Amino acid sequence: MKTKIEPFKIKTVEAIPMTTVAQREGYLKEAFYNLFTLRSDKVTIDLLTDSGTTAMSDRQWGALMYADEAYAGSVSYYKFEDAVKKITGFKEVIPTHQGRAAERILFQAMGVEGKFIPNNTHFDTTRGNIEFSHGFAFDLLNEKGKNPEIIDDFKGNMDIAKLEDFIKEKGAENIPVCFITVTNNAGGGQPVSMQNIRETKELCNKYNIPLFLDCCRFAENCYFIKKREKGYENKSILEIAQEMFSYADGATMSAKKDGMSNTGGFLATNNEKLARDARTILIVTEGFVTYGGLARRDLEALAIGFEEVMDENYLSYRIGQVEYLGNQLIKNNVPILNPPGGHGIFLDAKRFLPNMPTSQFPAQVIANEIYRLSGVRTVEIGSLMFGESTIMDLVRLAIPRRVYTQNHIDYVVEACTEAYENRNNLKGLKIVWEAPILRHFTAKLAPID
């Protein structure tokens, strides 16, 4: 059989809002043309993020009912801890309410003020937490990863040569940690090869710099390694994950992605002193060490989610759904970042609106037009999120896990195609108010006359 079916049945349905173009034009104006400000009951298909938007399984919902809500020493925590240790091998596992909490705690515990932190590509909250702690975030993505039109197996890879030059320039003593994000979210959901992770670790060891993984989508990255990297085709996702984490000294995770749950995260490491310092910060700011700001039932759901996400039938469907969306858009000549990523499709705003300067936020303009035409909410990952120095200007269509059907995806294809066909009528935006950090979440915009 050639048809790729959903490897699950639907037990519960949720009604989705159906609105008109005229209504949506009003909603955009009320939201100051920032899709983060839209109420969800004004959105027909929500591709703003794949974070925390997963449809949990019957096993996960059932687990909520027998969770141990003890404040300290919850049995549910130990199930969560065992699941994380099985995959990562890290000795110290610290739960947090989401990934950015793990990042904040890590950078506070490390003391990154005035320090330099390299990554293949920092995503928004990682960069925001570094800068909020008065550190400096640098992206060292390989050159192929910066070109949306190039097709390559591992466009998320760290540029090893540039990393060594960076270490020599800044001084190893000024680099408290090196990160690799798997898959590379801001770089189009592109995977990182096992070889690249291994070589990055070898370089970090040379200069005595710890390597951490931002592992929000670790299972998707492992699936790409299995399918694309020689020597891994016969290994299980768990085996690949265990090797991948073996090259790292720690990890942060927003488990709202490949934890297959609606909330949660963790900081994990083999460094006992770092873990002690992190737990002190956790107790002061998040909660006790065996719940970390979460309800214990969320830890139960995550323990099961970490198991379910490594199912190859699920991953084949998950990656296949994203690939289908990308291929349909390519057929309709809509410019996307190639090849399709793991968790979403990224429209290339520079080819979509080649004559619109980045100062007018072309990716945000496209995202607004898609919503105006269809009620599909996407997100800008470009000059509004990262400033005019951004390498790529993208519109991300992040696909929630186990949520939307084939017909929903076809509707999204039609929406993006119609927006592309209407591209010559689109006008730029200007900022009328912005926050000093992570401005894209709350910025107010207005059309340029």
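The record above closes out task 2.4. Task 2.5 opens with a second protein, given below.
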Amino acid sequence: MISIIIPCYNAEKTIIRAISSLENTSFNDYEIIVVNDGSTDNSRQLIEDYSKTHQRVKLINQKNSGVTISISNGIRHASGEYLTFLDSDDFVDFDYLSRVNNELNGRDILELSYRLVDTEGKLLQTNIKQKQEFNTPDDMKQLINKLYFDNHSFSGFKYVSIYKWTKVIKTDIVLKILNEYEKENFTLYEDMCFILLSVANASSLKISDYCGVNYVQQAKTHSRSHQTSYEDLLKLRQKLNSFLDVYCKTYQLDRSVFDTIDFDVSKFYFSRYIKSHSFKESKLFFKNMKNDDGYKYGQKLTNPKGESFKRKIYCFLLKHNCFLLIYLTFKYL
């Protein structure tokens, strides 16, 4: 059985589409676990009504606790041999579960390709992974040594994406790392924590070029925004670095693999900070960031070679401190 976990927060407009897309399949050995994270809209009622006529759909209600607790809660209620995840505003192709089941073949982790679509489902971009297999502990050791940055690429997770919803993972592995994942309780980068821990505890992994997940480009609805201040960014970075220090020591990894983490987190955080803050606030944030030693060190190491055109442009603007162009891009585009 495959258990699909969907964290849901105020997703009344999309949650039924997400659930029903999983049910439009020829594969029937699955369950859908929707974790309602204290939604204040009509999400709960919609899911309850839907589950009355769809027995494979289970609803778990909890007070608003964030995506980490939602995911953990869903995992603890799962019955399947394998777990996968879906955001409440995303959806899958009709043959998704049957294709996934055929590709697993006993592996610990299956990594899938995916599409980026708009809110109407129109294709924006297709992300096809190069097919690869890692079938021994030695293979997996080599993978986790280059998992985050290979030659300090601008985008993390070049081989295996940062997203949980591109993974199908044996439940035994997830249960092994669940307490550590839940203890960290990241408000941002919880995906990274989850993926790093999962891959480090797996013995085999397959990267597939099958593209069955449709990732909707809009503000996600399974949690609340936490891009609030420069001080909060520093706290996040400190927490991530503490986690990575322990992670590298535990799994005997070279800590330099993560030397660009401060820059990567900062540029991600800043691009989202702009969307909800004024020009003056954003300019002050940028001033603090560009004078930050950790940020500057990671920036020097970062190489955008092989990245998308948009990422190359963003990297160029950051390296040349072009605040106005960055602000206009993320505020209005």
